Amino acid sequence: MSARDEKPVSEVPTLLWAALAIALAAQVTLHSLSKPESRRAADLPPAPSTAALRLASFDERPAASRLAMVYVQAFDLGGENELPYQKLDYARLAQWLQLALDLDPRSEYPLFLASRVYAEVPDPVRMRAMLEFVYAAFLRDPDRRWPALAQASLVAKHRLHDLPLALRYAEAIDHDVSAPDVPGWARQMKVFILEDMNELQAAKVLLGGLLASGHIRDPAEAAFLKQRLEELEAKTKGEVGDAPKRRPLD
């Protein structure tokens, strides 16, 4: 290539400069994490401001969001935890996750990490904090963020064994999500949680209303739900049949 074919630095696209800056920042960050003996996960620093990270990334917000998540994940991997994420400061962790969402509200990754990684620690206090973070984020964009709340409901049910909390999240999905492409199983979660809570009459009413609404268009799914409704009706009749009968007045 001759000198006349070369372009001046001023003509290099801004996006390329941003990519170079982000790559360099990631390299510096990972290098700073290369000494696990001097770093503990509990030392996770407060998240920087959104404006500061936007400036550092030349306003390439999605890239800055990904960089923030790379930093947080690499931070814990460079720490001294015997169990991953066990000692992270979850208040600061929530700040970093919120920063990533603020930079790229359409990204699913921060809430994926929150509901499927950070909510899986064997610590009920940390689990509940992360589930509530997911719930608050869901309320700001229900149609896009319902999958994370559905996972949060499953974690509450199967890991925390907190059925009222699982029901609260499932009810929020059914009440607040208006997107037409939400699958039936997501809207049916609260029915089955009510059944687990032995709230059979309420589960039966909800399931009957769901079938009558006409939203179930898949014949196989409709047949399955009708079968479950019949099973619920049988259970409620069984409860009535098993109830102690009053003796007639003498």
Question: What topology emerges from the helices and strands here?
Answer:
Blueprint: H1 14-32, H2 50-56, H3 61-77, H4 90-103, H5 109-116, H6 124-140, H7 142-158, H8 163-176, H9 184-196, H10 200-212, H11 219-242
Helix pairs in contact: 1-3, 3-4, 4-6, 5-7, 6-7, 7-8, 8-9, 9-10, 10-11
Could you explain how this protein is built, in words?
This protein is mainly alpha-helical. It contains 11 helices and no strands. The chain has helices at residues 14-32, 50-56, 61-77, 90-103, 109-116, 124-140, 142-158, 163-176, 184-196, 200-212, 219-242. Helix 1 (14-32) packs parallel to helix 3 (61-77) and helix 9 (184-196) runs antiparallel to helix 10. Mean pLDDT is 77; it is low at 1-13, 27-39 and 240-250.
Features:
mainly alpha; 11 helices; disordered N terminus; disordered C terminus
In short:
The chain has 250 residues and is mainly alpha-helical.
Head-to-tail CA distance between termini: 112 Å
Identify low-pLDDT runs. Answer: 1-13, 27-39, 240-250
How do the helices and strands follow one another from N- to C-terminus?
HHHHHHHHHHH
Largest sheet: none
Radius of gyration: 25 Å
Number of strands: 0
Helix fraction, binned, reads 55-70%
**Mean pLDDT rating:** 77
The portion of residues forming beta strands comes to under 5%
Class of secondary structure makeup: mainly alpha
Query: Which overall shape is indicated by the principal axes computed on the Cα atoms?
Result: elongated
Please count the helical segments: 11
